[in-house]
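Summary of Year 1 activities. Much of the first year was spent building the evaluation harness for sequence design. The harness presents a backbone, in tokenized form, and records the residue chosen at every position. We chose the following record to illustrate the format because it has been used consistently in internal testing since the harness was completed.
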């Protein structure tokens, strides 16, 4: 029986016979197909939604048993609100997590309202999730106090979960901004901190009264289309500026 890939005699790479050519072409086509499939899987798993799922699975794996988890929810207290990708309530406190599914580099400071995220497709200015979480601490504490819940620790967490490569973070060295590979170490530390919530189920139920529905995370194709549209708009604005300056000069003359 004829075998396409015959590794018993590795002389076929010299391409001396018709069979050598068949094996070489078959190997090349197979390799190309495998690489294409891997590329498609990798690209489509680089979406915000896929990243949130990856982080949430690790939350469930490494957090303590009596913890409560929520994915892609909004919290509103009066005029203050926040959208979180991964919300965790355990005996150590409340964790307001945001997941970056794309972004190989991040720049900013923990106290700045915005960070700049970069990858091969460009860069964009995004809200700093740690800053947003800090703005929600007092409103959430007031809402919990109304239900006679006091002393709960509230923290923000930014997880960079781009699976293309390990992201590089230049955000002031804060331990609240980590990569997916650092999440296990984060939970090891968190699970050893002091208890601030005696009844996580009660706190989780109180937070659920503050929930509001949020739209699903954008997928890879949606993000790509959005970034392209933003680039086109910037180019159009850049072209329009010289024309406006010329018009002003003409009026002055």
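For this record, the design step produced the sequence shown next.
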């Amino acid at each position: 029986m004829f075998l396409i890939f015959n590794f018993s005699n590795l002389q076929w790479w010299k391409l001396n016979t018709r069979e050598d050519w068949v094996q070489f072409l078959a190997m090349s086509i197979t390799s190309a197909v495998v690489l294409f499939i891997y590329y498609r899987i990798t690209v489509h798993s680089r979406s915000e939604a896929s990243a949130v799922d990856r982080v949430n699975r690790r939350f469930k794996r490494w957090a303590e048993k009596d913890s409560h988890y929520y994915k892609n929810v909004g919290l509103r207290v009066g005029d203050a609100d926040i959208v979180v990708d991964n919300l965790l309530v355990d005996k150590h406190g409340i964790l307001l997590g945001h997941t970056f599914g794309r972004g190989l580099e991040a720049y900013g400071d923990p106290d700045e309202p915005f960070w700049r995220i970069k990858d091969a497709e460009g860069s964009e200015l995004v809200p700093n999730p740690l800053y947003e979480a800090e703005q929600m601490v007092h409103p959430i504490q007031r809402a919990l106090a109304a239900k006679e819940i006091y002393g709960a620790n509230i923290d923000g967490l930014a997880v960079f979960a781009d699976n293309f490569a390990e992201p590089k973070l230049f955000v002031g060295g804060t331990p609240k901004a980590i990569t997916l590979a650092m999440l296990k170490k984060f939970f090891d530390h968190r699970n050893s901190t002091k208890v601030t919530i005696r009844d996580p189920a009660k706190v989780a139920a109180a937070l659920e009264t503050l929930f509001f529905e949020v739209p699903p995370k954008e997928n890879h194709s949606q993000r790509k289309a959005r970034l392209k549209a933003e680039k086109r708009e910037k180019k159009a604005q850049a072209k329009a500026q010289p024309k406006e300056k010329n018009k002003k000069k003409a009026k002055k003359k």
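The chain has two domains: 13-44, 48-227. Quantitative recovery figures across the full test set are reported in Table 2.
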